[in-house]
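TA notes. Do not distribute before section.
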Amino acid sequence: MSLVADNSGRRQDRILFAALCVVIGLLSLMPLARLLFEAFAPGGVPSFKALTATLDSANTWTATLHSLETAIGGTVIAVILGGVVALVVALTDMRGRNAFVLCFVLPLMIAPQVTALAWLQVVGPASPLLKLLGLAPPIGARNPLYSREGIILLLGIQYAPLVFLTLRAGLRSLPRELTEAARAAGAGRFFILRTIILPLMTPGLVAGTALAFVSSVGNFGIPAFLGIPGRYVVLPTLIYQRLSGLGPSVLSEVAVLSMLIGVIAMAGILLQDVMVRRRDFRITTTSIAARPFTLGRWRLPVEAALWGIALVVLVLPMVGLFLTSLVPAFGVPLNATTATLANYAFVLFEHAAAKRAFVNSFSLSAVAALVIMLLSVPLGYFLVWRRSPILRALNVIVELPYALPGVVLAIAAILIFLKPLPVLGVSLYGTVWIILFAYLARFLVLGLRPAMSGYHQVDRALEEAAQVAGAGLVYRLSTVIFPLVAPAATAGALLVFLTAFNELTVSALLWSSGSETLGVIVFSFEQAGDSNYAAAVAVLTVLVTLALMLATLVFAKRIPPGVLPWRD
């Protein structure tokens, strides 16, 4: 290869890497910097007025206490439920593992507001399911989920799959030698679990706990559906109420509230790091996966218990949601005479905002997924196949918008785009483009991680051969590398699409007339008392999610293990 070609190739590398750094800076660093600037220097003048006023408010600390209560309570339920299920699924010889994992993980892929709406339709006085069974409380009775305990319960159900996934990933790499040696020495399964498996799984368990806590702190859908009617306000709903009631005039105040959420979330992440660093959990040997424990005569009861859990956390609320979508009005009993598909016809063909929401959600999710896939392939190339301190820092920076609650990013996006862009004179505030920006920033890491897994599975020999032959980086990426990592990158794009398609936390603060998303429409219908319309939209989103998840199983064998969370 000539010196000229070599210099040209290095120049391509530098230009592409610099462009990626600029994009990451705009998506990850600029929102956080703008948020800090607004909190401490509103209008460009250094001031602590907004900070002190917000922290002096009793409402702030009430909402903070409520956020901590629900996040800690929900995390405890998620850890117990997700941890027990992960141990049984990963360590035993249960049957139908793939089908069960799909059913258990599905609630994580369903939007929190849909989960909340579904459960409200199961236990409320107007529940068609309870009316069919003759168990419905009288109309006017208070729904028990409109409470702190209701929020905690649903947060635990929503994020138990997060704990399950992180713990199962560690259990898959459990060395067979350790468990086999303990078995040979006569140790029982519970002794092995207590003395070998659980200590080695501490990092995965702590990571899952931190993820569940951070997700619970930033969750908007469940506290909005259950807390606002029950007058139980947490920080995300306080921000929503302040911003929707007073508009941009309270941006400095909500910036401080967003920072408070971020501080709580980061405290959870730092606590995770401290707990893991206290001991060395590294394994000095590798082997094939550990031999599963045989359930023997307990197999049928254990499998029945697991499928009972799936029935309660998935099937029961979805049945309640579907039955609600068939009734013509609130409180009407469901029978052969009253059952109707008119709600679906209304949201699909008659309601203008709902029709726009379907188009907006599909378009925004598809564009975000495509752009993130195109960014993930070259970014993954540098992060996996190149090594430098800058790249390690870049890897952390990419994760920031996803690690912090979505409401923090939404407020930052408002602050960035409230005024017209410099030079261009174009304002993105109040348009779908501000939502797209937030989706790209928040979900980039979801598309990047599967692409990086694909790079770890690829032999670099073909790419190196193309480089020796004089092919530049852009040419190698498009003709050699992308075909090799395409299955993993496509799976990452699908994860982005599914997550963005059902999203509410970000779009609830960024939408305006004409830029509604499906999450916003479900929330709006429920707030207006049109639960049957909200249920119809929610059922359609669940069907789309389930269809796409099942479609991925066709090419699942070409995707690196662990990329698709719903496949064992």
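Switch to the second chain here.
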Amino acid sequence: MYKYNAFDEAFLAERNAQFRAQVARRVDGSLTEDEFKPLRLMNGVYLQLHAYMLRVAIPYGTLNSAQMRQLALLAEKWDKGYGHFTTRQNIQYNWPKLNDIPDMLDALGEVGLHAIQTSGNTIRNTTADHFAGAAADELTDPRPYAELIRQWSTDHPEFQFLGRKFKIGITGSPHDRAVVKAHDVGLRMVEQDGEIGFEVIVGGGLGRTPMVGKVIRDFLPQADLLPYLEAVLSVYNVLGRRDNKYKARIKITVQENGIEKIRELVEARFEERRGEFDGTDQELLAEIKTHFTPPALRSGSTEAYQAAYETDPVFRAWADTNLAEHRDSDHAIVTISIKAHGATPGDASAEQMRVMADLAQELGYDELRISHQQNVILPHVHKNDLPAIHARLKEASLATANIGLISDIIACPGMDYCALATARSIPVAQEIATRFDELKLEHDIGHLQIKISGCINACGHHHVAHIGILGLDRAGVENYQITLGGDATETAAIGTRTGPGFAYDEIVPAVERLVETYLAIRTGEEETFLETYRRLGMEPFKTALYPEAQKKVA
């Protein structure tokens, strides 16, 4: 992983000192909140429902053990003992005091972390496949390119005041684990004539107008990445709407002008920008790649893993759901669920963070990843170490065997924290997970993704869920709409709304009816909820959701 050099350290120290002075001016009244707002947003500080919130960037979701321990320290020293991992592979602290935030930023800088551009109308944290560098299906590790984008985009003078925020996602695998088609720009690494480059997708995004991105370039050589991104951003910066913030994202620019016109403008601008790059970016990329050398994986027997798998049903259930195939057959990728039944999705205590840091240092080649699904990954674990890891995770309440199952729910903070939210998200997620744990059905149900948002901004990604839930305010009462058929993978799709929404006390029974219907009509255990929906469509699920409407028709 990338390590800060002297320039990075000096830049960050100067930036943090600048913000410390801005905070002091806000506290003594020299700055009003309106004057302070753009300054704090540039440094990842929000004003939430009850307190300030600090959002820390975890670039392309990659951490080492020292960084995870520092995140634990921040939670314990300046917050309420926990942090919240987000769908942007960041971590949020919901209760810091404004006076303490400069100290928090300095502490982050000590381990090569920051909060720059985690908010505001600029290029946000570039996200990546959380299995990057380890996945068996990977063409190449996308993280060096994500780091190149991070360095290029940080304080880029042309793109600090865009019409709206701008998000870039990248994956190095045919199977999309980074939701690239729901990004302003999505990058898929592809191979053409023996050369690896990028398929470039533009105009994706969720929120009040959800859209799947469109391919603007089938193949972009690696050397052209930055000039092409500059061309896309430059065209958007000029052409994008600024008269209406709800129409200011690049997805609306693409929709209103058409992909062909956008492609024509971008290609023309690309030819101009390309000549401005003298190869320095490629020299920088070559240096960056030296920081992403794969770990020296040890070899050896996997008999201890096989014995535990065959004799311990609890371990076997965890292995079946929480392990993924590694590029080395003696190793596995471990996903640590931050979704214990009844817990807040994405929340981890300081002590849990330290446990995960210890495991990474001792048994995981000192690497951790944060997924957009709000879980934590140990990307390289020798299979013989898996029983010991599982035992230690159990002691820390981190061994829930539910990755990809119905209780592995993505949920935004909702009205419990967010000033923009119109309904609660966290309690709905907790009750759904608890209910299906009581029913002991989730392993029978199989792969089913539920995602919940507490407002139309869709921070919970509900549009691309198999079952999406959107909480809204209806005359002062929480009302929850359901969408079906969303997909966050390479076959991305926006879910379809089923019909009228449900009251807070009706939403869990409604989900239960959907699942009961799926179990009754699937062709067999191998057919997932999404496959059943695509085969039969909305009608059987709609009938189950609205039985009273069916009676009236009859």
